[in-house]
Amino acid sequence: MLNIRSLTCNPLQERCYLAWREAPRCVLVDPGCYGDDELRLLGKILTEEGLRPEAILLTHAHFDHVYAVKALQDRFGGIPVYLHPDDARQLRFCSVVPRMMGFPEPDTDFTRTDLAEGPLSVAGMDFEVIATPGHSPGSVCYLEREAGILFSGDTLFAGSIGRSDLPGGEYDDLIRSILEKLLPLDPATRIFPGHGPSSTIGQERTGNPFLEPFNEPEEEPDPDLEPVVINRG
Hints:
The chain is an alpha/beta fold. The chain has five helices and 15 strands.
């Protein structure tokens, strides 16, 4: 069974996820915790569940997804931070964009581990890294196929898609990523995006208004997928 807890972070309402099969091993996905209060809340969840992160998985490098990366990497003994190399250049905007919006700049002086499309085994879980450029050049999604879970970052949301008007974004690439790599997944695959509520591939395939005229007739979900325990923070 795959366990997931989440918390909503920073003024942009970014979603940070904790995922694990057996405590204390876990991963953190996009820890955008903003300020001491949110870091304390994350620490409280880790303590409640008896978890110790073994890695940080970044779907992309926009500032609202990386606020807590440096602090958490230092706190947990230099755990790897996985990021696609095509998004490393996006880190330079982490000092520009938040300043323009009136937010503090994140500390991006963390050590990165380059990520490539394909398998990634970490903390007792087997992910498939899916390269989904469009929202940013190095955007990726993390699929845990056995449990039918997709951490979709800012590529695909419930009823929406990611922006492509930010530096490095490209609409055609974004649509191609969604249509060719995400929508063909099992319709019962549950989506946990970087903002907003969860959804399923089936729901987005048939009803996402930003994907018209690509919507398809509704499909029945696969009843054989492994159960997932979701506890939203």
